[in-house]
What we know:
Number of helices: 11
CATH topology of the largest domain: Rossmann fold
CATH architecture of the largest domain: 3-Layer(aba) Sandwich
Radius of gyration: 21 Å
CATH class of the largest domain: Alpha Beta
Order of helices and strands: EEEEEEEEEEHEHEHHHHHHHEHEH
Structural class: alpha/beta
Strand content: 15-25%
Amino acid sequence: MNRIAPFPQIEHQRAVIRDGLRLDSGAWIRPLAIAYRTYGRLNAARSNAILICHALTGDQYVAERQPVTGKPGWWENLVGPGKPVDTERYFVICSNVLGGCMGSTGPREEMTDEEGRGLGRPWGTDFPAITIADMVRAQKKLIEHLEIPRLLAVIGGSMGGMQVLEWAASYPESVFAAAPIACATHHSAQNIAFHEVGRQAIHADPDWKGGRYWEDGSVPARGLSVARMVAHITYLSEAALTRKFGRKLQDASALTFLEDVFQVESYLRHQGSTFVRRFDANSYLTITRAMDYFDLASAHGGLAAAFRNTPTRFFVASFSSDWLFPTSESRALVRALNAAAARVSFIEITTDKGHDAFLLDEPVFHRALGGFIAGCAQELGV
């Protein structure tokens, strides 16, 4: 049995929605808990709120040290005082997605019956299938709980960008501006395939135990680590991997299958081993499926139809070396927005950092996004 240090017990800031949420699957989640963080102050008019949507393995700690790893917030270079998403001017909200493992209702949280009574064990694989739209409905309930009538902007990259698109399509009157970054309107067959390799690695781990690993405190660490390694490769570009590692060797004494021979191998194993200490395997299965299900055009009767007569302003950004969500996908989105007569700005950032570029230091991207948000704020008189 593979044991690692248990998840630390963290008291997350949470909103509890007693009447719960009906999912696309027809299942009820009751009550619904949404873990979230806020930065800055809500103004008197309640008009300066920005919602940030996190990516697959992100969380609500967007601009502060992570409680599990102690690392800086995952978008601290973008969000904070005097930064493009300026917390001295805007009230920034970020919530852990439905199905996550950092305090929102998900597979790690206590299972409840249809009446909302706790059953004394985690949901595990009994947690119902969810969609990106379900995640957004949960966020909408949080925004209503915070008594914010309309968001100045919704911003997110990768899976966060999918949530942004769903917000704009489902609640256009509640979103003044939307910034979907490094994302697409649906998951490609290649992306689904990479996710499936990761899911099968988890299923093949003997410590997964049909998803009931929590019963004896074991963790399917080997499978979850491999899933993370496979996914992480897709976040980088060949140029970035070559620049960082090339074919540099470790200090392996001989050609062997038992040690890391190349530095890139050591890097990937480190990524995998640290991931299993902060993420839940059943959450990973749940959220990757939600990404795979996402297809905005099918859900809204066509891509242009999803945005017809929308009042929302759009900022679409892609990165030249991103092969997970290539620029061609962003251009298809922009064409659909143009067909819907939406107000849209588009920028492709030239970089060799791959998909992860949206999280890294990209000054041109930061200036463009910051300028877009500031322009929207000025238009609203914020």
